[in-house]
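Recall from the previous lesson that a structure prediction takes nothing but the amino acid sequence as input. Here we apply that procedure to Membrane-bound lytic murein transglycosylase D from Campylobacter ureolyticus. The sequence below is the only information supplied.
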Amino acid sequence: MNKLFSIFTIFIFTITLQANTLIDEILNEFAIPNNEKNKEIVLNIEKSIDQRDVNEFIKIIKSSPDNVYMVKKELEKIDAPEFLLYLAMVESKFLNRATSSKKASGMWQFMPRTAKSFGLNVNAQIDERRDPFLSTDTAFKYLDFLNERFEDKWYISLMAYNCGDGCMKKVIRNNKNDDFSTILTSNKTPRETKNFIKRIIKNRIISKNMDARIALSDIKPENLVEKIKVQGGTSLASVGNSIGLSVDEMKKYNPHIKTSVAPKDQNAYYFYIPEEKLNLYALNYIGQIIRGEDTFAPSYNIHVVAKDETIESIAKKWDTTTDELIKENDLSDELEIGKKLKIPIPIIAFNDNKEYTIKKGDTLIAISNKFDVDVATLVAANDIKNLNIKAGDTIVIP
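The prediction returns the following tokens.
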């Protein structure tokens, strides 16, 4: 009997020790002060987890393998804490097109103002909050900014990500204390923000579950992509046609493009295409340009006339002249609502001051990405006649 009691006591002690170790790990990771009140909060979060939570965690991970894999790899590159992965999970379930009632958008749920202040373009043509690669890089910069502002206290930085750094400063000032338990019990802290940090901690605890760890380690991307530079005004359809993809398929790879066309006001912009389509893109799209056929290269944007629009207002919107519009569309004084107008894409003037010596392994696509210039412009500026560029040759960068 005494032996059985001793075994049971050891078992209970081991379970308690494991639980305490887990709680200490979480407190340490999130830089939460290790005191009894904070331990109790984290312990209660851990106790609230059941198998349904684990199953939901695994379901979300498996439903967005491309973004989960990419964010994990980017976090590893910069040696950032894994729990930032669960920030994106809580914000959007890793969905690029996720949108909130407060106008936050993208996997990282940036508000328009924050996005713009950290360099993301948000306008009628593009929404870079929905670009998983660019928004992830921007989210890391924003989190780094917040964590520096709040002296490496991740639990505060994460709450500030939800309600704003000004909000958290006010909460701390009003409470005269930045302890985790104080912030979570304060009526000055928004309820949404309290739940937000608890959900991130909850997912981090779940991630230590064996089934969850297996799901995370097994995750592999389904769609590897490559970035290509295109001229302003290039349509998703024109690139898609060259590689055998429909517009809808191209939209899947380019959730940041709102109008199915690269921004007309930029000399060069970018699309993503499947990695396995890169050679086909070079052969068809770039090959046609080199041969002077321009089968896929766009010559026009399309504008659909809306109510109260005039030739003058449309010309101003597209930065062209009324004469060009009239000439290209055989227009009279009155415009018909719903009529489709062809908007000429301007020819870009070349600046031949910059030169680049081609290195071994360089391709036109790689050079265009390196210098932020579309391939069509690169080809035209250098009168390139062959896809097989030679190492040692010098080319002009427009």
